[in-house]
Amino acid sequence: MKRFGVSLEDDLLRELDRLVQKHKLPNRSQAIRFLIRKTLIREDCQGNKLVTGCLAIVYDHHKRELLNKLVCLQHDFHHLILSGQHVHLDHDNCLETILLKGRAKELNDLAKKMIGLKGIKSGELITCPIR
Ligand code: NI
What we know:
This protein is of the alpha+beta class. It folds into 2 domains: 10-46; 50-129, ACT-like. Chain A, domain 2 (Alpha-Beta Plaits), CATH 3.30.70. Helix content is 44%, strand content 31%. It has helices at residues 10-22, 28-46, 64-76, 104-115; strands at 50-60, 81-88, 93-103, 120-129. The chain has a 4-stranded antiparallel sheet. Bound molecules: nickel (II) ion. Nickel (II) ion binds at residues 61, 86, 88, 94.
């Protein structure tokens, strides 16, 4: 553990103390750790970092319009898509897993587009940095 001094304007220090209270953190140091980690995670997930991803979506295949939109999106973003697998879970439901590779922000944007389609029951993107 290293110690260092931090200089902050009064209003910024007040905001830091507000965060300490809001998140029930024990002290200002913990608040600064919290903010750094949060920023790093956000950078990893939305930034320019090269990542692989696995997008899983569950939907009802009777919704034809949805199927068409899903296929169109995959063709529009074929440069990010490595492979796709479709599993028929039961009479109504399908699970599709789509393996992706690209910049974190691109993968997140595509995942949001797909998960946001009307008729998608659930969806989740997992990303892993390549280096
Ligand atoms: Ni199916």
